[in-house]
Every structure is written in structure tokens, then in C-alpha cells.
Specification:
- InterPro entries: AB_hydrolase_1, AB_hydrolase_fold, AB_hydrolase_sf.
- Helix content is about 40%, strand content about 20%.
- It is α/β, with parallel strands linked by helices.
- The protein has one domain (about 1-130, about 185-250): 3-Layer(aba) Sandwich (Rossmann fold), CATH 3.40.50.1820.
- An eight-stranded mixed beta sheet has the order 1-2-4-3-5-6-7-8, sandwiched between helices.
- Strand 5 (about 95-100), helix 3 (about 100-110) and strand 6 form a beta-alpha-beta unit.
- Helix 2 packs across helix 3 (about 100-110), helix 5 (about 145-160) packs antiparallel against helix 6 and helix 5 crosses helix 7.
Length: about 260
Amino acid sequence: MNAATVGPDGARMRWVEISGRAPARVYVHGLGAMSAPYFLPAATLPELAGHRSLFVDLLGFGLSDRPAAFGYTLTEHAEALAAALDAAGVRAADIVAHSMGGAVAIALAHHRPDLVGQLVLIEANLDPNPPPTAGSSGMARYSEAEFLAGGLASTLDRVGPAWAATMRLADPIGLHRTAIGLTTGTRPAMRHLLERLPMPRTYLQGGRSGPVVGAESLASAGVRVVTVPDAGHNIMLDAPEQFAQVTAAALAQPALA
């Protein structure tokens, strides 16, 4: 296990790492998740294996610390992730990020483009104020006191055993504040930041999730939009072989004009 001090009061971000060739690949989990359980099965398949790979847990989640003084906005998560990548000696990495982690990755690429060579986003949150059915907004409808008093327990029952398996390990305050930060979004919003980024970018959508909102605008901005049939929101878990294939293909392609 690797770690770097990145937050208030000496808070440490931790990750599991596999050695390999450059560029490094950095995997970033979604809300209430952890990177290794979500990504390792696909990232170790032949199509993606061989690169230095870091499976990072953001502050408040998984193996990483839970600093009470941390704000848990998308920008603060991105700044903490940047500090960890600096400590790890990572530059121009392939960032592969899921859902909320994709929003953090967009903020990272905006603020520290030297750290990001390419972006692969898996159903990343691109817009603030998502529909009430989304997991983040379901948590954000509670006040912090309500979430701690019973909202977390209700959320764990609602999301089902697979998501709850990692969500129950998250810091409740960090989980709730991150959900608030996700519904608030960035300024400009993540979608607009993504469309303006200079590096190669790919957006993966599960076929069972429906069409990508604003797909034409993303494509016009040079973002490749790829649908993975027979997969839902967790593409890397629903269809690991297909995920490995389309991710490897995305990372092997040159930037669009």
C-alpha cells in the first residue's frame, strides 16, 4: 500500500499500486466506492495490463483518511488527488475515472493538466443538480444531521448490497459532503470544463443507462462517446472484458482534430 499526505491535519490518501511501464494509469472510484474492488478485475486483463497502475481512494473513502476539516468539494478532491500524484511522481497519466470520480478527474485535468495525458470517463457526472433518482442527489436531500441520524442507513438499504458493501466503509460526513459537492458541481460546470480540455478524452456509457445527454455537443468538442452494450452504470463490473477492450482502444487512439 502507498500513501501521501494531502489534506488537513496530515490526512493521507492511499492507493494500491501495480508496477509497470509509463504512462501511469490512475483509476478513480465513484461516490461511496473504492478503486481496487471496482477496477482491478478489468485493469488486470491483457488489454490493460502492463502499465504502472494506481488504484486511488479519495479522502473519506476506502483506505484513505477521513479528515473532519476537509470540505469534500469536487475541486478539493481534485487538489488532494493532485498532491498524491505529485508525491507518486506521476505526470501525463491516463486517468480512468467512474461517476463522481469522473467529475473529480475533470476538475483535476482543468487545474493540473500536466498530470493528465488522457481521460477515460465512465458515466461521469457532467452537470450539477442531477435528477432525484441519482445516488448523489438522494443523499444530498438530507441535511448533514439527518444523514447521520438515519439517512445513511436508509441510503444503504436503498442502494442495494453491492454498492452498500463499499459505501458502508466510507466516512459518513465525507460521503454526505461529497454528495453535496457533486450536486453543486464546479464553476464552470464539469461538462463545459470537459469540452474545453486539450487532452484526448473518451466518455463511456453503459447501453442499459440510455443515451448520453448532450452527446452531440461532446462529440463536437472532440470527446469520443462510446456506448458499451449490455452494461449499466458500473461498466467495468457489468462487462469487464468489453470495458478493457474499449478503454485500451481509447487510450491507443490519437487526439481528435
